[in-house]
Amino acid sequence: MVNVETEAPNIRAKDAIPVAEEVPPFAFVLVKLASRCNINCTYCYWFRDAEVYNKPAVLTIEAEDAFCQRLEQHIEEFELDQFVLIFHGGEPLLFPKHRFVELQEKLLDIEDRTGCEISRGVCTNAILIDREWADILKSYNVTVSVSLDGPPDIHDKYRVDFKGRGTHADTLRGIAFLRAEGIEPGRSRFVTRTPTLNRFYRMWSKSSA
């Protein structure tokens, strides 16, 4: 005989909340290299919170070393053969070049010790990319995704610097440095209207030709 008062709640809870038998280990991490940005996008929500400015401007060495140690432990614990890291911000390329290189070397050492392939990518506005940055990204096989909102009249309405000036030309200059090194970046954008999306793809196709 079932005791309704004690058994029914357990039955209802069990039926209502399915429990996964096994949760796979994560193999993707977004790494915030910088908590500041070099432009002032009108739609950006991150810097509306004043607490952001209480955080270190870039990832501290202590936090970097702790992350690399924990990453290696995680890879070894779950015997992972692939892992993905995406460097993000703010603007991640505010992270000093020499420290970016040192971080990549640490990740290569982890690959050597664990046998795990660590794929790396960066999401950037491309404004800070010069020949040296492009060479670094190519040397360490870091894929690049560039934030570009469309043609100048659209992009420059939203993606402005701290003096209110558009940044479209600066972004295209950074893309040119990437392409000079044989890097064809991916694109990320903020969509305002469907027609602007069509214009964006026409512009990008023309610039890639």
Shape: globular
Return the CATH architecture. Alpha-Beta Barrel
Total domains: 1
Question: Helix fraction?
Answer: 40-55%
Count of helix runs: 7
According to CATH, the fold-level topology is TIM Barrel
Radius of gyration: 22 Å
Mean pLDDT: 87
The first-level CATH class name: Alpha Beta
Q: Strand order of the main beta sheet, please?
A: 1-2-3-4-5
Q: List segments where confidence is low: pLDDT < 50 over at least 5 consecutive residues.
A: 4-9
CATH evolutionary superfamily: Aldolase class I
Strand percent estimate: 5-15%
* Total DSSP E strands: 5
The secondary structure category is: alpha/beta
Q: Biggest sheet, open or closed, and with what strands and sense?
A: 5 strands, parallel
Structure keywords:
five-stranded parallel sheet; 44% helix; alpha/beta; 7 helices
Structure write-up:
This protein is an alpha/beta fold. Helix 2 runs parallel beside helix 3. Residues 4-9 have low confidence and may be disordered. The N and C termini lie far apart (77 Å). The chain contains 7 helices and 5 strands; from the N terminus they run αβαβαβαβααβα. The protein has a 5-stranded parallel sheet, with helices on one face. The chain has a single domain, classed as TIM Barrel.
